[in-house]
Specification:
Layout lengths: L12 E3 L1 H4 L2 H17 L2 E5 L5 H15 L3 H5 L11 E3 L4 E3 L2 E3 L2 E6 L29 H27 L8 H5 L5 E8 L8 E6 L5 E6 L6 E5 L2 E4 L7 E5 L1 H6 L9 E4 L6 E9 L14 H4 L17 H12 L1 H7 L1 H16 L1
Parallel strand pairs: 1-2
Antiparallel strand pairs: 2-12, 3-6, 4-5, 6-7, 7-14, 8-13, 9-12, 9-14, 10-11, 10-13
Helix pairs in contact: 2-5, 3-5
Length: 352
């Protein structure tokens, strides 16, 4: 892979239990949270209260899923889901048009599909049911527990961010109050780098609000871009790697920036389990813009302008953009009209 220069800096480590202490300690935590995400967009989170037993069980259950016979995994393949849910085989996802070398199962909030009319926004097609493997019934129960724990952590962080930015603690709550669109991926990276590093997942930003990432102990590969260089972010025991998504960049006019990151494949003969929790609001929600205090507003850098990756203020538009690009095979099967519409719009823009 190109751009493999590594910086020597390490990501900050924040302890969420400081927030529960209240008073000056909580205020100090909020300050550190704001600074870490302004400077890096990434940090490690400890003291979060998620039980160690559940963390171990999630990793174990993930391994049991990937150890299933191929036929059991393909029974819930995402090609069968217009909602982009289910199993993606190795090489079945793209980033920046290049193949990601991983297999995964995508699990969203369980819902009935939306009845589509001519007036229904395209992004509402993302709402719908999950596909659960019949050969591993405990996966659904474990994921439900995981969702509840991480939803608590994510909301706590989001409220702490709001206060640290001079806003009311509940400024973001309405966007998550009904029909949140949080997504869980359970991912396995097979070994492929030997010795030249190969793409596990290409360089990208997350489209939502924030991400809580659990990485299997001892399994490196995540890299974070800072000042044009890559910082290695190996796992810390029982810690989450946290990063902000594009919607917090929108909410703060670029004071907080969604940070580019990537994953390098493990060495041949090894593999890696990774479980990101993408905390996201309702598809039709628009995250409120925060009026920053003058000293912070002076440091806001504006929303990133990238014609190849526009940031939309409505979450559903941002999410649909990402899903159509990452899974063109699912898009071609279930959303050919959107593929045609996007191609026509791209052609018109190129002529403009």
């Amino acid at each position: 892979m190109t751009g493999s220069t590594l910086a020597t800096a390490a990501l900050p480590v924040l302890d969420l239990s400081r927030l529960a202490a209240g008073g000056a300690e909580a205020e100090s935590f909020r300050h550190d949270l704001r600074e870490a995400t302004h400077d890096y967009g990434f940090f490690y989170l400890v003291g979060h209260g998620v039980p160690h037993e559940l963390i171990e069980r999630v990793i174990t259950t993930a391994r049991r899923f990937f150890d299933l016979p191929e036929a059991d995994k393909l029974a819930v393949e995402n090609l069968k889901s217009p909602h982009f849910r289910g199993y993606t085989r190795v090489g079945g996802e793209l980033t920046q048009g290049k193949v990601d070398w991983r297999e995964q199962i995508d699990i969203g909030v369980e819902r009935e599909p939306v009845a589509l009319t001519a007036d229904t926004p395209d992004y509402m097609r993302l709402d719908g049911p999950n596909q659960w493997p019949a050969a591993l019934p405990e996966l659904q129960e474990t994921v439900a527990e995981w969702y509840d724990e991480l939803d608590r952590v994510a909301l706590t962080l989001l409220r702490a961010w709001a206060v640290s930015l001079g806003a009311d603690e509940g400024v973001f709550d309405a966007a998550f109050a009904e029909r949140p669109s949080t997504l869980i991926k359970i991912v396995r990276y097979p070994g492929r780098s030997d010795p030249e590093p190969k793409q596990g997942v290409g360089a990208h930003k997350d489209s939502g609000v924030l991400t809580l990432l659990l990485v299997e102990p001892g399994k490196a590969g995540l890299q974070v871009e800072k000042d044009g260089e890559w910082i290695d972010a190996p796992p810390l025991e029982d810690a989450f790697v946290v990063n902000i998504g594009e919607l917090l960049e929108v909410a703060t006019d670029g004071y907080l920036k969604a940070t580019v990151h990537r994953v390098i494949s493990p060495r041949t003969g090894d593999d890696r389990i990774s479980i990101p929790f993408f905390y996201a609001p309702a598809l039709d929600s628009t995250v409120p813009r925060i009026t920053l205090p003058p000293e912070l507003a002076a440091l806001a850098r504006g929303i990133t302008v990238d014609p190849g990756n526009p940031i939309f203020t409505t979450y559903g538009e941002n999410s649909l953009k990402s899903r159509l690009r990452a899974h063109p095979d699912v898009a071609a099967i279930h959303h050919a009209d959107l593929v045609e519409k996007n191609a026509a719009a791209a052609a018109q823009n190129s002529r403009a």
